[in-house]
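It is worth pausing here to work through a concrete case rather than discussing structure prediction in the abstract. The textbook approach is simple: state the sequence, then state the predicted structure, then interpret. We follow exactly that order.
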Amino acid sequence: MALQILWLNLITDIFPAFALALEPSAPDMMNRPPRDPQESLLTPRFVGLIVWQGLLLAGVTLVAFAIGLDWHGTGSEGLRRATTMAFMTLALTQVFHVFNARSQNRSALTSRLWTNGWLWGAVATCLVLQIAAVTVPLLQRVLHTVVPTASEWGVIAGCSLLPVVVVEFVKLIQRAVTPRGVSGKALAAGQEKLTGS
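Step two, the predicted structure:
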């Protein structure tokens, strides 16, 4: 289990994070008011976002683990299968969630979906390595994984994609209740606040 966590830290955390660092600026960036330099990087809204999405990712992982235990029991082989399901779910959830992380309010399914080639490279690399983690005998022994059955892959895929659907739905609601764009008046007000004039 500890080696699985280390694997996740080295594979599904690092590659997508580097790719997000190379994300192109949003098209409306210059229409937004300047950010207050006195404002904390971790605003209450952003902390809330981290908390509820983190709980969502943890929740689907625990659901996959619980289903694995229900199907296979708590014996040695059952635990190994349930752990593999949780391991794969958490890994793939992080990989798919990277598309949600590209913007706090813009849908992941826009025309900008293809603007970051590094992101797609990172996703492909993570997927290949995760499949290797449950199919290559050496990695199976080191990580204590097994090849998931078709039904287990179904649970893994469903749980991994669920956060994308939930976050997309939340973003859709936010866009519906938030006025579109930033008016020139709001921009001027933001500039005035910063300059103190």
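Step three, interpretation. The radius of gyration is 20 Å. The CA atoms of residues 34 and 191 lie 6 Å apart.
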